[in-house]
Write a structure and sequence with these properties.
The chain is mostly helical and 240 residues long. The protein contains 10 helices and no strands. The mean pLDDT is 91. The two termini are 16 Å apart. Helices cover 85% and strands 0% of the residues.
């Protein structure tokens, strides 16, 4: 029972900090729209260049992820971010993200080849991908909140999930579902508006929900990583 109270206290703390931070940095909600435009432009420009085009598209997508993570990092650690962070962020974590993508691509590619002719191979491959999603779910937070890198980072993510999977997934899944429902409701409520207006409003709503979820994950990770249940209980008693 004590663990439940401590966990709920941590959730409440992360939720409040996230609200305060996002309300001061709501402009970041437009970042996913900008990333989408950048990525779609890259696909239009180099999508037909075969292997070279694929490499360019990969770099663009990882650069956008890098920028997003860097802005979230600044919100979580300093309480603010700006356009300079948006621009600078394209290179901050680019090569770390590319390295991780390459590390994961090799075994996945081998698995695709191995299961290509195996009965139910598609199902087995899907189960592997689900397992990777579960055990590597906090990789974004490890990238900008720890010194881990490459394979070490992936191993640290696995250990974190093994130790904290309930405390981590319950709120993140709940917020993701809630965010999805809010975006769907916003889309329904704007059906009568001109298409471009609806697109703008729904995109902003999606960006706002995504920003809040990622900031919440950052604060929750900071509370869970490197701590024990006993240590968290001690902090709870000290703040009670």
């Amino acid at each position: 029972m004590k663990h439940l109270r401590v966990t709920l206290w941590i959730y409440a703390l992360a939720l409040r900090r996230s609200w305060e931070s996002v309300s001061k940095n709501w402009i970041v909600s437009f970042a996913p729209l900008a990333f989408g435009f950048i990525f779609s432009s890259a696909v239009s420009l180099v999508g037909r260049l075969g292997f070279i085009g694929g490499i360019v598209i990969l770099l663009v997508s990882q650069a956008c992820l890098s920028s997003g993570l860097y802005m979230i990092e600044n919100i979580v650690h300093m309480g603010k971010t700006n356009f300079d962070d948006f621009v600078k962020g394209f290179s901050v974590y680019l090569w770390e993200l590319v390295r991780i993508s390459f590390i994961l691509w090799i075994p996945l590619r081998l698995a695709q080849i191995a299961f290509a002719e195996v009965p139910n191979g598609g199902l087995m491959l899907a189960l592997i991908e689900i397992a990777l999603y579960v055990f590597l779910n906090p990789v974004p937070e490890f990238i900008y909140q720890t010194q881990s890198s490459g394979i070490e980072l992936l191993g640290a993510s696995y250990n974190f999930i093994v130790e904290n999977w309930i405390d981590w997934f319950i709120p993140t899944i709940a917020l993701t579902v809630l965010g999805y429902l809010l975006v769907q409701a916003l889309s329904f409520m704007t059906l009568s508006l001109p298409g471009w207006v609806q697109f703008f409003i729904v995109s902003f709503g999606f960006g706002l929900c995504l920003t809040y979820i990622m900031v919440f994950r950052g604060f929750l990770f900071a509370e869970l990583h490197g701590t024990t249940r006993r240590g968290r209980a001690y902090r709870y008693d000290a703040n009670a």
